[in-house]
Design brief:
heterodimer; A: 113 residues; mainly beta; seven-stranded mixed beta sheet; 11 strands; 0% helix; globular; B: 112 residues; six-stranded mixed beta sheet; five-stranded antiparallel beta sheet; 56% strand
Chain lengths: 113, 112
Amino acid sequence: ETGVTQSPTHLIKTRGQQVTLRCSSQSGHNTVSWYQQALGQGPQFIFQYYREEENGRGNFPPRFSGLQFPNYSSELNVNALELDDSALYLCASSGGAGEETQYFGPGTRLLVL
Amino acid sequence: GEDVEQSLFLSVREGDSSVINCTYTDSSSTYLYWYKQEPGAGLQLLTYIFSNMDMKQDQRLTVLLNKKDKHLSLRIADTQTGDSAIYFCAGSASDSSYKLIFGSGTRLLVRP
């Protein structure tokens, strides 16, 4: 086990709704990255937070937003959900700038109907 | 742009060696990683190699890196049924985020 936890484990929403996913990083890690993994594909980078600031963003629209808190836990928010947002959302924590190795949580499976 | 490619499927018999291959385009990746994903689960870090190394061995796992050909491989010795899973290779991007660029995964099936 990596010590990275995510909640909830599963979620069902309808199109147009909003969702918030949560991640607690491994003890001692100050960086959280979020990835989207569609069925049958590899994870795609959404964004990364380092010490409460966004530190890089992938090719995702602005309706995907995030936060990092002083205890380095993080939230991923998705507004105006679309059917294609159905996926496994993974967060990964790492030790910060220069410490690259990322350790993943178990993921949140989101289904949008 | 950055891209990582893997073969989709590999089937081996229990006790044989498995070799999973990966090619990547971003030669500036500092680290290259192998992750394992079991059904319905997150990603488990198996091993990684620094870009200035050619080989790394870790118990049953051997990683080979050919920087000239941008080719990475993972060899699993004495493959067991518990090794059946999807294996992803990933490279770290060269920007400040060190985001990971993943391949689409290789499904390894170990037959008894």
